[in-house]
């Protein structure tokens, strides 16, 4: 399978060639030249597969330049109950992504039972194994440099810990993450994991990463790479659970299902879009945002206006606090009929150095034809989030976290009779205990392996918000 850039000016590449890459050379994002199309018989056969076997079938369509026996081994080693079934000790289904019915026609797809209790583990664990495999083949090393304010950093560290040929340098704003998230990252003792607490805010961390990436000589010399959400393999791995969730919610392939997705960088729901383009009978993709509603605004109005840092609000669903949605360009490429030149000129408008730069498709034929992609959207706020957490707890005895609550609240507004609604659970409540206490007046249950997490010894270095400091640190530790 050949991968092309959304901006249309980079040569096509194979899966293994883009596995370790970020942006395409022309600044765009990689996508398959054509989405694989599922025959009815194949869909029928997939219904009976375990998660690992299903993941193999999906990934072999996208990663067709990895020998099948190797890919099978990588995938089955990743999707095991040992990695994905620790979070809910009472739950002995041994399913990797159990579907829990709240009431007839309304279900929660559990994606957060992995090592860091958030859905990012679903793809990141596979990425860790794919990276290790690719580096062993080429005999190269990789130094992953990232900035995090929570879920991405811990998920990346748990996926890369102990991996040969890989080091992780993860910057986070000193004292600004939750105690749980800080402890999760800083308690890792693996020698290939380097936690750097920066005296500054998240944007300072991100600026340091950008400065290093823009120093091409340093980047090449120290083999600097990333694992951010634009990575294609992450998106591809997320396609799998849309299939699994669909099969779990239906009895036959004539039925349709709608998915509700708590969204930030558009990575999760982009995978849903791809599953739908492959022929999975998804009726609606319901995009939920929090107060940072840049995506909701686009799907309602056709105007995409990234926010400035000042306009980006800190909310109680912090992993959705985004100013721009880094995967959104992938969808726009499909929306404009895969016209790379058009995407290029649209994004050139955003790169103009003026306040309020936006892409305006409101009057366009493309936006008028939007319905065929099945997207609907809405935004939620703090009060709505707490009310949903209370409501789900009182009605169904199920505790959900703040992000999942945004998805449920928005999903219920878009629910249609006769169409099962599957809400994606993107984190466990144990990660966001303050909001749970605010909503329910009680602490969330904490999975057994996480008791006393905050009391473990912590390993990190403190650093000024200075790009040279992180370069020196990387140079001194490789
Ligand atoms: C990352 C994250 C999201 C947003 O997912 P995107 O792929 O960025 O849209 C939602 N909820 C949680 C808990 C997350 O960690």
Features:
42% helix; six-stranded mixed beta sheet; five-stranded parallel beta sheet; 478 residues; Rossmann fold; 15 strands; binds pyridoxal-5'-phosphate
Protein model, in words:
42% of the residues lie in helices and 15% in strands. It has 20 helices and 15 strands. The protein is globular and about 60 Å long. Helix 12 (267-277) links the parallel strand 9 and strand 10 (282-289). By secondary structure, the protein is α/β, with parallel strands linked by helices. The chain has a domain at 99-117 and 238-440: Rossmann fold (3-Layer(aba) Sandwich), CATH 3.40.50. The strands form 4 sheets. Strands 3-4-14-9-10-13 form a 6-stranded mixed beta sheet. Pyridoxal-5'-phosphate (PLP) binds at residues 118, 120, 151, 229, 262-268, 319-320, 403, 426-427.
β-strand number: 15
User: Quaternary status of these chains?
Assistant: single chain
Average pLDDT, all residues:
95
CATH 2nd-level architecture of the domain at 99-117 and 238-440 = 3-Layer(aba) Sandwich
Helix content: 40-55%
How would a textbook summarize the main sheet? 6 strands, mixed
Note poorly predicted spans: none
How are strands sequenced across the largest beta sheet?
3-4-14-9-10-13
How would you sum up this structure in a few lines?
This protein is α/β, with parallel strands linked by helices and 478 residues long. 42% of the residues lie in helices and 15% in strands.
What's the structural blueprint in terms of helices and strands?
Layout: E1 3-5, H1 15-18, E2 30-32, H2 40-46, H3 51-62, H4 68-78, H5 81-84, E3 99-103, E4 106-110, H6 120-138, E5 142-147, H7 151-160, E6 166-173, H8 179-186, E7 193-199, H9 202-214, H10 216-221, E8 224-225, H11 232-249, E9 257-262, H12 267-277, E10 282-289, H13 294-301, E11 303-304, H14 328-335, H15 340-351, E12 359-360, H16 365-368, E13 375-379, H17 382-396, H18 402-413, E14 421-425, H19 433-440, E15 461-464, H20 467-476
Parallel strand pairs: 4-14, 5-6, 5-8, 6-7, 7-15, 9-10, 9-14, 10-13
Antiparallel strand pairs: 1-2, 3-4, 11-12
Helix pairs in contact: 3-4, 3-11, 6-7, 6-11, 9-20, 11-12, 17-18, 17-19
Bound molecules: pyridoxal-5'-phosphate.
């Amino acid at each position: 399978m050949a991968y092309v850039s959304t901006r249309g000016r980079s040569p096509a590449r194979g899966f293994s060639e883009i596995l370790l890459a970020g942006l395409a050379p022309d600044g765009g994002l990689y996508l398959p030249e054509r989405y694989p199309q599922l025959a009815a018989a194949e869909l029928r056969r997939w219904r009976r597969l375990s998660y690992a076997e299903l993941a193999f079938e999906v990934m072999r369509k996208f990663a067709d330049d990895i020998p099948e026996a190797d890919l099978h081994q990588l995938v089955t080693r990743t999707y095991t109950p040992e990695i994905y079934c620790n979070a809910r000790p009472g739950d002995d289904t041994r399913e990797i992504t159990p579907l829990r019915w709240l009431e007839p026609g309304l279900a929660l797809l559990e994606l957060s039972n992995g090592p860091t209790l958030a859905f990012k583990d679903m793809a990141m664990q596979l990425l860790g194994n794919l990276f290790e495999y690719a580096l062993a083949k080429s005999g190269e090393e990789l130094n992953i440099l990232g900035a995090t304010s929570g879920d991405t950093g811990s998920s990346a560290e748990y996926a890369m810990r102990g991996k040969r040929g890989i080091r992780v340098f993860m910057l986070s704003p000193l004292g600004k993450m939750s105690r749980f998230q800080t402890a999760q990252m800083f308690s890792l003792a693996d020698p290939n994991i380097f936690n750097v607490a920066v005296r500054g805010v998240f944007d300072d961390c991100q600026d340091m990463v950008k400065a290093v990436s823009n120093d091409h000589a340093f980047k090449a010399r120290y083999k600097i790479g990333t694992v951010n959400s634009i990575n294609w393999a992450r998106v591809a791995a997320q396609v799998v659970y849309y299939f699994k969730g669909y099969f779990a919610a239906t009895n036959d392939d004539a039925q349709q299902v709608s998915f509700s997705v708590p969204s930030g960088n558009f990575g999760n729901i982009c995978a849903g879009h791809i599953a739908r383009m492959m022929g999975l009978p998804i009726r609606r993709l319901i995009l939920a945002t929090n107060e940072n509603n840049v995506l909701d605004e686009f799907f309602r109005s056709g105007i995409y206006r990234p926010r400035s840092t000042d306009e980006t609000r800190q909310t109680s669903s912090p992993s959705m606090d985004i100013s721009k949605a880094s995967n959104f360009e992938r969808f726009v490429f499909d929306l404009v009929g895969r016209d790379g030149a058009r995407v290029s000129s649209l994004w050139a408008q955003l790169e103009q150095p003026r306040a309020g730069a936006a892409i305006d498709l409101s009057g366009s034929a493309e936006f008028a034809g939007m319905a065929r992609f099945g997207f609907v959207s809405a935004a939620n706020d703090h009060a709505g989030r707490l009310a949903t957490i209370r409501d789900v707890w009182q009605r169904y005895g199920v505790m959900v976290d703040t992000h999942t609550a945004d998805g449920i609240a928005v999903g219920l507004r878009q629910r249609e009779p006769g169409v099962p609604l599957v809400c994606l659970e993107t984190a466990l409540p144990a990660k966001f205990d303050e909001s749970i206490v605010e909503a329910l007046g009680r602490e969330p249950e904490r999975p057994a392996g996480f008791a006393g997490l905050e009391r473990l010894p912590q390993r990190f270095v403190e650093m000024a918000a200075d790009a040279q400091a992180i370069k020196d640190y990387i140079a001194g530790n490789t």
